[in-house]
Amino acid sequence: MSDKYDVIVIGAGPGGYVAAIKAAQLGLKTACVESWSSKDGKSQVLGGTCLNVGCIPSKALLEITHKFEEASHDYEMQGIIAKDVKIDVAKMMERKSGIVKQLTGGIAGLFKSNGVTPIHGHGKLLANRQVEVTDKDGKTKTYEAENVIIATGSKPIEIPPAPMTEGYIVDSEGALEFDEVPKRLGIIGAGVIGLELGSVWARLGSEVTVLEAQDTFLPAVDQQVAKDALKQFRKQGLNIIMGGRVTGAEVKRKLVNVSYEDSKGKQELKVDKLIVAVGRRPYTDNLLAADSGVSMDERGFIFVDDQCKTEAPGVWAVGDVVRGPMLAHKASEEGVMVAERIAGQKPQVNYDCIPNVIYTSPEVAWVGKTEEQLKNEGEAYKVGTFPFAANGRAMAANSTAGMVKIIADEKTDRILGFHVVGPQASEIIAQGVIAMEFGSSAEDLALTCFAHPTLSESVHEAALAVNGGAIHIANRRKKK
Fold first, then answer.
1. Which residue in 12, 206, 423, 433 has the most C-beta neighbors within 10 A?
2. Is the pTM of this model over 0.90?
3. Residue 480: its pLDDT value, please?
């Protein structure tokens, strides 16, 4: 078999494996290079961070612990008596690993059925679209391609004040492997990863303290929604300290001593485990030869245009390694766009309609502009909100925290932002994405018939509320 391909993809995460499958479906001879190995080092592992140590295992733990939390605290008031509910951490981890194995194995099957050639090793881009692959034994082989797609993803950021210490100070990957519930858990960073991991272990009985250096909670989220979420998280027992800047962390007598500064001055915190969740950085280690023609910025992101083209002809880059939100679904959409463009089609990712989700309880999800962004831009807008506390299905499910919030253009009524905090926000947000993708107005949603009783009726009511016509809550009085 020739070592020349129409497309070589470097990286088999959600950006890379999807791009490879789509390229092969479009009739292009495709290979996908991935260095991740199984624990014994013998076989290749596909799926990248998301499937192996990110989205999927964390959601498995969130689902299991949410059920445990409900059974422990919420069943009795609903007439279900479930005494002495216990958690088997080893069994929970086994379940998580089983789901991961099933999905990663599924990608190998998809590669086979679509004719994608998997290449096991570390890929490095050389000049003229050549890819050098180094295998686990250090042997190298060079492949040629008409097009190269870089999809190497990202890895957790490490910080000098809290160096990784096995068994004590871990990153998000290590936090998915605890073999017992830590009595006291510290987390640096109140972002998506920190909040999700904090929720998992708090539900199982950990005393969780989250230290966030910024003064604003979830600054990228609409602040009305963020404040509502913060109130709920604190009510659940998460001790979230804003403006808490970590200055040091060291292990002494099997405890992690964390030093930090907040508005009250120097503080100390003792925990059994410390998770560093301060964000992720592009994974570009030993990726580009000096003459590859591909440029990066000072933070390691690869420069691309709106179609994910780099400055080198025939070289593309997608996902966490380029600008924009570090989201698996964004990476996949970019992967599909690039594969289709290579095949001569003209698709474009609509970056204004990429949803974001935090899988806590309540869930937080949003798409489009926040009120703060629109105020800063000087745009005239109107807002409609509806609380789940007034929704019959939410009451029946004993899950009434949160709201749906829709922001529309003052003049045109076009939906500019769609924000949810509450039950199944991760599913409800799709309605906002679809509406915005089709250029809907708030009136379009208000004129749509929603099934009763459903959580989605809150979307209907929020859309009605944009123009003062909500049925099941009192509307704001219009200014005369």
1. 12
2. yes
3. 53
- Residues 150 and 88 occupy one common structural domain: yes
| Catalytic residue selected from 73, 122, 452, 472 | 452
What is each CA distance from 93 to 87, 99, 309, in whole angstroms? 11, 10, 40
C-alpha to C-alpha distance for 10 and 31, rounded to whole angstroms: 9
Shared-domain flag, residues 357 and 334? no
- The answer to whether residues 404 and 353 touch, using CB atoms and an 8 Å cutoff, is no
One domain, residues 86 and 183: no
Q: In whole angstroms, how far apart are CA 449 and each of 225, 426, 460? A: 26, 21, 8
Indicate whether 70 belongs to any domain.
yes
372 phi, psi to nearest 5 deg: -60, -40
How does pLDDT run across 181-240, given as a tens digit for each residue? Answer: 999 999 999 999 999 999 999 999 999 999 999 999 999 999 999 999 999 999 999 999
Cα separation, 274 vs 185, whole angstroms: 6
- Strands 273-276 and 239-242 turn out to be unpaired
Say if residues 187 and 202 touch (Cβ distance below 8 Å): no
Q: Which helix (H) or strand (E) holds 75?
A: none
* CATH code of the domain in which 384 resides: 3.30.390.30
Surface-to-core class of residue 457, CB atoms within 10 Å of its CB (0-12 exposed, 13-18 middle, 19+ buried): buried
125 CA to centre of own chain: 27
Q: 161 in a domain, yes or no?
A: no
What size, in residues, is the chain? 480
**281 CB-near residues (< 8 Å, 6+ apart):** 154, 155, 156, 157, 299, 300
Please confirm, yes or no, whether 73 is among the known catalytic residues.
no
Q: Are 370 and 377 in contact (CB under 8 A)?
A: no
120 pLDDT more than 70: yes
> One-letter amino acid identity for 4?
K
Question: Whose CA is closest to 331, among 315, 352, 354?
Answer: 354
Measured CA to CA, the distance from residue 148 to residue 157 in angstroms comes to 27
In terms of domains, do 371 and 299 share one?
A: no
Instruction: Give percent above pLDDT 90 in the chain.
Output: 97
Cis link prior to 362 (omega < 30° from 0)? yes
Bridge partners (DSSP) listed for residue 144: 4, 130
Domain that holds residue 210: 169-278
